[in-house]
Amino acid sequence: MRLSIFYETVNIGASMVMNKMATYREGRVWVGLINSSDGWKHIKEYTDDSFMEELIYTGRSGNTIHISYREFKKDFA
């Protein structure tokens, strides 16, 4: 039997684990060629049923790692 373990370096403040159940609508609004290379501003708007959870690495003390939990509903924490 062979066991593979993967290690990844994570910076403080980076998301370690993310669970995202989100749907969104995409659209665009004309803003003019002066304000954008193609003249359009692209918009991504999350629907009311969108939900996201994440674990964030916040540092370590000796053998203890510190992790924060955040959750979002639509675009709000």
Description:
By secondary structure, the protein is mainly beta. The chain contains no helices and five strands. The chain has strands at 15-21, 24-30, 40-46, 51-61, 64-73. The strands form two sheets. Strands 1-4-5 form a three-stranded antiparallel sheet, with no helix packed on it. It has a two-stranded antiparallel ribbon with strand order 2-3. 0% of the residues are buried. The mean pLDDT is 79.
Short summary:
0% of the residues lie in helices and 55% in strands. The chain is mainly β.
Radius of gyration: 19 Å
Low-confidence parts? none
Query: In angstroms, what separates the terminal alpha carbons?
Result: 43 Å
Biggest sheet, spatial arrangement of strands? 1-4-5
Structural class by SSE content: mainly beta
- E-strand count: 5
Major sheet summary line: 3 strands, antiparallel
Backbone shape: elongated
Order of helices and strands: EEEEE
- State the share of residues found in helices, binned by percent: under 10%
Beta-strand fraction estimate = over 45%
Q: What value does the average pLDDT take?
A: 79
Number of helices: 0
Structure keywords:
elongated; mainly beta; two-stranded antiparallel sheet; 55% strand; 77 residues
Helices and strands in order:
Layout: E1 15-21, E2 24-30, E3 40-46, E4 51-61, E5 64-73
